[in-house]
Design a protein that fits this description.
This protein has 256 residues and is of the alpha/beta class. Helices cover 50% and strands 12% of the residues. The protein has helices at 12-21, 37-47, 55-60, 71-79, 131-137, 149-178, 183-203, 209-216, 222-232, 237-250; strands at 5-8, 30-32, 50-51, 64-67, 88-91, 107-113, 124-127, 143-145. It binds NADP nicotinamide-adenine-dinucleotide phosphate.
Length: 256
């Protein structure tokens, strides 16, 4: 029997989950929480989902419940609902510990992914491993089980990395437009630069990313010239510091 899947919280990320789980031949019926009625109705109409009468109704109708409410609301919302032991609660709430959901008798799994789940193009990190959760989430992209909760937190940071890449895209687009390239063309050049780079990274499995970079930055060539400026300005190393800052934010004691 296939799992009945619910989604609690149909904001930005909840919407991406709905889109990803409704794609193509492996689409699954979903039941959505009703808060933000307009958005729930629009998602339901577009993707053929059901909208529950209440959060409790959504929980009652689901075997696997995906949680996509804001982190600060998550534990209180979960504690206010009645859960069955045979259910699985999958929290995508960044930085909220598994222990924060101990009020629910359901199995609790933490997960994280990027907005690209909408296109089935994100990895999904999970902890702990759970076969039922894997079978649901692998529709969104490769599911990678993390060794422990601390590693899951590190995985969470990497989806901040994904989002920050849009800052690099915006710089490239803006430079291209200032130098006469039409906005549509700039968008396409930048979008395909990222897709192409990602595909080449995944294709050339025997090469390290450093090897690929060296092969592109031939001595005295154009790429080497640009990289020298980024290195001199500390722009590449600053990415590590940015990711450290995201990790510190996730581990902030203000989180439940
Ligand atoms: N945004 C991303 O790309 C992304 C990626 C990975 C994970 N996440 C995680 O996803 C979660 C949501 O982030 P978001 O960016 O999607 O935030 P968001 O757009 O604010 O969505 C949160 C949604 O939860 C709803 N909500 C609030 N209280 C609720 C309740 N009691 N019952 C049911 N729904 C309730 C909100 O309704 P109202 O609109 O009526 O307030 C809103 O639609 C966060 O925990 C975040 O860490 C986000």
């Amino acid at each position: 029997m296939s799992e009945r899947i619910g989604i609690l919280g149909v904001g930005h990320f909840g919407g991406y989950l709905v889109e990803g789980l409704s794609r193509g031949a492996r689409s699954v019926p979903l039941v959505l929480s009703p808060r933000n009625a307009g958005r729930a109705a629009a998602l339901a109409a577009r993707h053929g989902c059901a909208v529950a009468a209440s959060n409790q109704d959504a929980v009652d109708r689901a075997d696997v419940m995906l949680l996509a409410t804001r982190p600060d609301d998550a534990a209180v919302i979960v504690a206010s609902l009645r859960w069955r032991k045979d259910q699985v609660l999958v929290s995508f709430c960044g930085g909220v510990s598994r222990a924060a959901f101990s009020a629910a008798p359901a199995t609790v799994v933490r997960a994280m992914a990027s907005a690209a789940v909408a296109a089935g193009e994100s990895t999904v990190v999970v902890w702990p491993e759970d076969a039922r959760v894997r079978s649901v989430l692998e529709r969104l992209g490769p599911v990678l089980a993390m060794a422990d909760e601390e590693t899951l937190e590190s995985g969470t940071v990497m989806y901040g990395y994904y989002a920050m890449l849009f800052g690099v895209m915006a710089e490239g687009e803006s430079w291209a437009e200032k130098h006469g390239i039409a906005p549509d063309a700039a968008r396409e050049i930048v979008g395909l630069a990222f897709r192409g780079a990602g595909l080449m990274r995944l294709r050339d499995k025997d090469l390290s990313t450093e090897d690929i970079l060296r092969s592109l930055a031939t001595p005295g060539g154009l790429t080497e010239r640009g990289l020298a400026v980024l290195e001199k300005d500390g722009a590449l190393k600053s990415w590590g510091r940015a990711l450290d800052a995201v990790l510190r934010r996730i581990k902030s004691p203000k989180r439940p």
